[in-house]
Amino acid sequence: MEKKLHFLQKELLRKLTLSPTLRFNELLIEEIESEHMNYHLKQLIEQNLVKKINGEYALTDSGKDYSNLLDDNMEHLEKQPKCSIIINGIRKNKQGSIEYLLNRRLRHPYFGKVGRLSGKVQFGEALVDAAKRELFEETGLTAQTWNLEEMYRKTRFREDGTPVQDVFFYKFFVTDFSGTMIDTTPYQENFWATKHDVFSKNEFDPYDDLDLDERDTPQDFKLVEACGDAEGY
């Protein structure tokens, strides 16, 4: 969520992005009284966007990060693509057929859609650590073998061209699972299913980009970009 900053506070941030530190008189804005200026600086300090050291003002790490997300006019945050992982988890059943670790979403967006397990990468988190964390948190399972095999950018648009989804997914090919799977959480149902099950039974409503290619080994790393309609979003 964008912080609700006064336009004068955004102007102060703009000035501070152009210098390591600035003194109070170097931050003054024309026609604004110093008392008024002091109020807005205090507001920025309280929000941990600005810090005062030895009589000079500078951006905090949070302030630098926030300013970097603002557009060139320092007016609005620019919406950025998200970063997530996908777990392409497989195993072989007793008949020798490949089964996939899948889930059915029980929340929006894509309510009811069936696909692979996915989740957001936390700030500063390694991709494989994010994948391992999401697997355990969402299913209770762990796995021994992890191969990063694809970076997949998924963008989806409404009929009028409005973008509603823009995500960079890092897909891991995962095998050798252990543990007792959590079948249901408040947000999803987890299960193993074959390609035939997913695409032949009416009980499943797969994502339009769900590709179950029945491989039992990882593929060479590749980059894929896919645009499409926001069907089911």
Report on the structure:
By secondary structure, the protein is of the alpha+beta class. It has 2 domains: 7-69, Orthogonal Bundle (Arc Repressor Mutant, subunit A), CATH 1.10.10; 82-229, Alpha-Beta Complex (Nucleoside Triphosphate Pyrophosphohydrolase). It has helices at residues 7-17, 24-27, 34-46, 61-69, 127-139, 195-200, and strands spanning 22-23, 50-53, 56-59, 82-92, 98-105, 114-120, 142-157, 163-178, 188-194, 222-229. Strands 4, 5, 6, 7, 8, 9 and 10 form a 7-stranded mixed β-sheet that branches. It starts with 6 loop residues before the first helix and ends with a strand.
Q: Supply the number of helical segments.
A: 6
Beta-strand proportion: 35-45%
Mean pLDDT: 92
**Biggest sheet overview:** 7 strands, mixed
Total individual domains: 2
Structural class assignment: alpha+beta
- Give the overall shape: elongated
Helix and strand arrangement:
Elements: H1 7-17, E1 22-23, H2 24-27, H3 34-46, E2 50-53, E3 56-59, H4 61-69, E4 82-92, E5 98-105, E6 114-120, H5 127-139, E7 142-157, E8 163-178, E9 188-194, H6 195-200, E10 222-229
Parallel strand pairs: 4-8, 7-10
Antiparallel strand pairs: 1-3, 2-3, 4-5, 4-6, 5-6, 5-9, 7-8
Which features characterize this protein?
Nucleoside Triphosphate Pyrophosphohydrolase, 36% strand, 24% helix, seven-stranded mixed beta sheet, three-stranded antiparallel beta sheet, alpha+beta, 6 helices, 233 residues, 10 strands, Arc Repressor Mutant, subunit A
